[in-house]
Amino acid sequence: MQEKGTISIHTENIFPIIKKFLYSDHEIFLRELVSNAVDASQKMKRLAVLGEYKGDLGEVRVEVSVNKKKKTITISDRGIGMTAEEIKKYINQIAFSGATEFVEKFKDAGDAKEIIGKFGLGFYSAFMVADNVEIDTLSYQEGAEPARWICDGSTEFEITEGTRKERGTTITLHVNKDSVEFLEESRIQNVLTKYAKFLPIEVKFGEKDKQVEDGEDKEGKKKYKTVKEDNIINNTTPLWTKSPNDLTDEDYLNFYKELYPFSEEPLFWIHLNVDYPFELTGILYFPKLKKDFEVQKNKIQLYSRQVFITDETKDVVPEFLMLLHGVIDSPDIPLNVSRSYLQSDGNVKKINTYISKKVADKLSELFKKERESYESKWEDIGLFVKYGMISDEKFYDKAKDFVLVKNTAGKYFTMKEYEAHIEANQVDKDNNKVWLYATNVAKQDSFISDAVDKGYDVIVLDTPIDSHFINHMETKMENTQIKRVDADNIDKLVDKDEKRELVINDEQKEAVKGVFDKAINNKTYTVAIEPLAPSDAPVSVTMPEFMRRMKDMQATGGGGFNMFGSMPDNYNVTVNGNHKLVDKIIKATEEGDKEGLAKQAFDLALLSQGLLEGKALTDFIKRSTAILGE
């Protein structure tokens, strides 16, 4: 038996899904209904411009109101309105978008693409919060009759003669018992501020108080009184919709304050404005971050035709730029059917690449034209640049010319400049250039001093991302090694194959090692007697570069390195076999004196690195005090 046919989808099955599951957040209903009202208003203005409407346009705005006693929310506009037949077409046929039809009809008329609507489903979000929904509407068309539509959330509806006298539409929601929170004016105000803040048509929600001058008092001081004025929710022409040529620095700073009232002023900004091969506008700000990597993300807001969509923009904005602030507006970013989140496609990837390129170009321009200013901002922007170089190969290719390193003397270098700076002296026996770095200048001061005394230079890499940055850079640079200044004795870090002999014999060497092993009494520390210069420190304690770096990466979220983070610390204890301390230990007649000298020297090495604390520090102080009193 063989049979072919079509699958039938019934509205009674799909309608509950649209009402309950299409929108994950119930407050979205207000965004959708207000957007529809703005959509209808823009259509009306467009028709007037095209000469399709000859009447008085009048004030075109959207009004939202709440009646707590009647348990209703009303959204009203003076847009194009609908006839009874259009209600049947646009409301009763689910997923038939009036905006789509309108754009198609007037696609060659310039700005018809400004219309917001897309899927024709937004209206039904009303039933997430309402038991009953009413539409009272009057079409702009000459001779049109007002129409009224009512539905209780089932698939049944009723259309009767309406009462509206002016063109436009009023939607009334009879709020259900589970959604009474939306009858609170403060709740509606917050939702409107979130989603409608930059809609292109004025949105009014009640009135607000305003202080105005009211003459002078007896002492000649100005008096003020409180009056009521319309509470307009939105700025209909936000900064990103304007030409950069018409804007000043003050305009950008004021807009930043509008977006982030409690933030410090940004360092600089990038105005995005492209219409091919995709349409994208926006402004991205570089905030002051310093070295705080745990900064709140989701500070970039995504809009579509000035309708707020989300602040989750990880697919549109490169990961390393998620710490930026600002606004992106694009109708070409694909959204899911409820306009609640992004869907990935080719346009998203193109936009992502474009934003990365614009940021790289801006940084390169600042570096070339205003290097001194660029250097003064490096502590704030360095995190972005290094993160980008690690995560985006194309960004790396550009950024390698403007990424900076700073040495302990406070001087900045590009990578090429630094290679030239150290190539005369900081090269090991295998012809590798050795970059020495410090992560904590104060704690590593003694190691830095040893390096400087040898004529070496030390750079500072002390941000949370630097352990990852170091690893990445080593894979990019030929014949270059990057070593932490306290990872070993300086002569081993920059190994020039200079041979030194121990002044003690092998038997004495083993005896001294045994004294230190016993005095330290901790398997975490591995003791070695080395032939160093007599003027070098008697004892130094270091952690091998590999182990230290892996632990640093694990501590800052370096995936795959947990095994190193969970391992116990292991240190190398280098005893300077040519130091006079060793001679004292050998000549001491009492074992206790030998161990005492070794323990004191070891603790002194720990103290110089900030590793001595608690009881060990107390005991060290007591011993030192006793020695001074002898």
UniProtKB/TrEMBL annotation:
PROSITE patterns: HSP90 (PS00298). GO terms for molecular function: ATP binding; ATP hydrolysis activity; ATP-dependent protein folding chaperone; unfolded protein binding. SMART domains: HATPase_c. It holds the Pfam family HSP90. Keywords: ATP-binding, Chaperone, Cytoplasm, Nucleotide-binding, Stress response. Transmembrane segments: none annotated. PANTHER family: HEAT SHOCK PROTEIN 90 FAMILY MEMBER (PTHR11528). Belongs to the heat shock protein 90 family. NCBIfam families: PRK05218.1. This is Chaperone protein HtpG. The lineage of its organism: Bacteria, Pseudomonadati, Bacteroidota, Cytophagia, Cytophagales.
